[in-house]
C-alpha cells in the first residue's frame, strides 16, 4: 500500500497554488507544535508539474521525476517495455557526453537510480548542492533529448541487462515466479496487471527500435510527469533553472489517467509450482480488493496487521505458536492505481504439508470471526504512525518521493492530510466490515510453491501453474557492438552545453558529545533537532568470538530470545508497551557483538530506554519461545541452501579462513551446531556475554547529551560488570588475526539449472581497527565502488553480461574479507569469469593519476550526504566506539583521502590483492558450465552448498 500513514493530528503543510497557477504563495503561519513542510507547486507551459521544497539542513539536493507510465500501459505480447525504457533512458542523450548519465552523478559525489512499477517510472538523484545545475542538465537531457541516440546495439545491450535482472531476481531465486503466477490467475487476460513489471523474456527480445520510439513519443512528455527538487536550494533561482532546462521540452501527447479496474473472482483457483530452488513449502492466498486511496484501503491495511503482526494476531498464534508449522506469517494490503490485493503468505517449515497450513489458517480466521481483536492492537498500530510520518520525511530524497507521488497519483502534494484523517478514523467497525466484505469466504488465488522433489506438499486440488523455465543455451543471445547513433542534434533555444559547478559546499561534521556513564559505558551523541525523533544503538562487544566450538550460532539465538518478553512482561505485553509509545526496539546479533536498537519520538526516549534496559537485564528465557526460535533458525538455515549468493558466501569464507577459525562458519551457525543448543546453554552464554565491559551507546536525535546521560544512568544503574569479567574484557578490545590458508586453484559449487552464475573473488583484508581498511576501500573504488567503476562498466555496460558488479572491504574485528562479486547469465560464465579475473588482477597496473583524482572527488564530496539521517549519524558514532576512533576521525579520513597517492594505492593492492592471495568462487550449473571453466581455469576444489569439500 502506498499511503503515507501518519498518526498525529497537529500536522500542517503550507501549500502553494494549484499546478495551473504559477504565482507564489507564502507559507501559512503555524503553531509552534506543528510541522511545516513548505513547498511550491506549479506547472510549466509544456505541462510539467514542478514541486520545489527548501531544506538547508545539509548541503545537498535531491531530484525525483515521476513519469506516469508503468507496466499497466503495456499490451499483451509487448510486456516489460516501461522497465526496459527506464534502462534505455540511462544511456546516451544528445547533449550529455556518452556514458555520463551513469557515471557523472556518482563522480560528482552523488547517487542516482530509477525504478519502474505497475503504474509509473521514477528517476532520482541526490547530489552535493554545487552540482544542482549539472543535475538538471543531465535529467532534462535524459527526459527530452535521448530518443535520437538509441541504436540497435544500445537496445540489444539493455535487453540483455534487463533479462539478466529477471534471471537474477526471478528465475534464479526461490519463489521468484510466485508474483507472475498470481497476476495471471487474479486478473483476466488483457488486464493491465495481468503481467509482471519486468515482463516476459520473449517480449523483451522482440522489442524493436520503432517500438521504443513509439513508447517514448506517447508517454515521455512533460504533460505526463512531475518533477520535484528538494534540498538546499534558493526557490527563485531554482525556478529559473527549471524553466531554462525543462521549459522548452515539447509537451508530448495528452495521456488520460486510467480509471480504477478492480476485479472479482468467480471461483477460487489453486495453482502449484515445483521450484528448483525452494527448500521450504510456501502457501500464498491472494484476494482482489480495492485500489489506492479507496476509503476501504485504510481499514484493509489495519486488518492485515491485526491478523498477522503481533503476539496476539490470530494467524501468528495459530500457525506459528500453537501448531508450529512455520517460523512466521505475513499479511498485507497492496493497493495500486487500478486495483488492490489482500494477501496472506506462509513459508512453512521443511516438510510441512500445505494442507496443514491452510487448515491452521482457516482456524485462525474462524477465531478472528468469533473473537475479533484487542483494541490495544489497533491503538498500537495507530501509535506507530506518528513516528512513521516523521521518518518518511527524514531525508530530502524521501520528501521528494512523497511529494511527487501524491502530486502525480492523488493530484495534490498535500494529500497526506487526507491520509492522516482516514487512517486515524479507522475504527473497530471499519476493520470488521472490510473483513466481512472482502476477506470472509472470498474467492482467492491459492499458490503452492514447494521444493521440486516434494510434490506431496502441494495444497490439495492444485494444478500446475505452467511456468516455462528458460533453457541455458550457449550463444543464444544476439551480439551487439558499441557504435554511436548517427543523428541530427535537436535544435534548442537554450545552449545545452555542460554548465559549471556552483561554489563548493561546506562540509561540516556533526558535533559529537562524548561521556562515560556511571557503569563505564561510553555515551556518544549527536544532537539533531530537525525532527522530534531519536535513534540509538547500544553495542555490546563479543559476539561469535565468545562462542564455544559446537555451539556456533548461540550468539544469534540468544539475541533473538531476548526479544521474547521479560521477567516482568509477557511477549504480548512487551509488544504493547513498545508499540503504544510509537517506538521500535529490538536486540540483534552481529559477528562482533549484540546490538540493542531503538527509535521513536523524542518525548518517549526515557520510556523507551527503560524498556530496553529491562529487555537487556531481565530476559524471560521461556522454554516454548526458545524451542520455537530454535526451529525458526534451523528453517532459515535450511532455506539458505538455495540462495546463490548465500552459497557463494559460505564457500568463500569456508575456504578463505582455516576451519578452526570462527569466521569460516556462518554467524547464524550450522544445522548441526544450532540443533545441539539447549536453553541452559543460552542462559549460560547470556551471563558471559551481556556485560557492560567496553559497551557503548550511540544516540542521535532531538535530545541533548545531559538528558541522555541522566536517562541512561537511571535506567542502567544495576547493569554492572561481573566479578569474573577481566578475561571477558580482554577479548573485546583488540583485533583478531586469522592465519592464511593454502588456497585452491578455484572453487566450484553446483546449482543445477541455475539461470545465472555467481562469481566471487575473496581475499583476506584488513581489520577495521587498522587505517588500512578505509584506505583499501578508497583504493578499490575505481574497481568496484559503484556504477562508474570498472567491474560495472565492463560487465554490464559494455558486455551486457550482468545486472551489476561491485567490490567492497568488509572488515570487522578480524581481518575480514575484501570481496568482488557479480551474477552473470549462465551461458557466458567462462567468458565473464575471464573478464572478471582480468579486471581484478590487472587493476593495480592500470591505476592512473586520473583514477585517483576521481576517487578523491567521489569520497570527499559524498561526505555532504553522509550524515543526513539519524541512522547515518548513529552509525558514525557506533564506528567511533567499536573501533576506538577519535572524535575527529571523519575529518582525518578526509585528509587521508586528499593526501593519498598512487604509490599508496599500489602498496595496498600489492599487500591485499596480490594474485596469489585471491580466491575465486563460482556457483552455477555444472552440467552446462563446468567443462568450459575447467578448460580455462584448471581443476577446482568442488564444494557442496554448505562449503564442505565433495569427495
TrEMBL record:
Keywords: Hydrolase, Protease. GO terms for biological process: proteolysis. Residues 480-507 are annotated as: Disordered. It comes from the Bacteria. Coiled coil: none annotated. Transmembrane segments: none annotated. GO terms for molecular function: metal ion binding; peptidase activity. Residues 207-385, 676-859 form the Peptidase M16 C-terminal domain. Belongs to the peptidase M16 family. This is Zinc protease. It comes from Umboniibacter marinipuniceus.
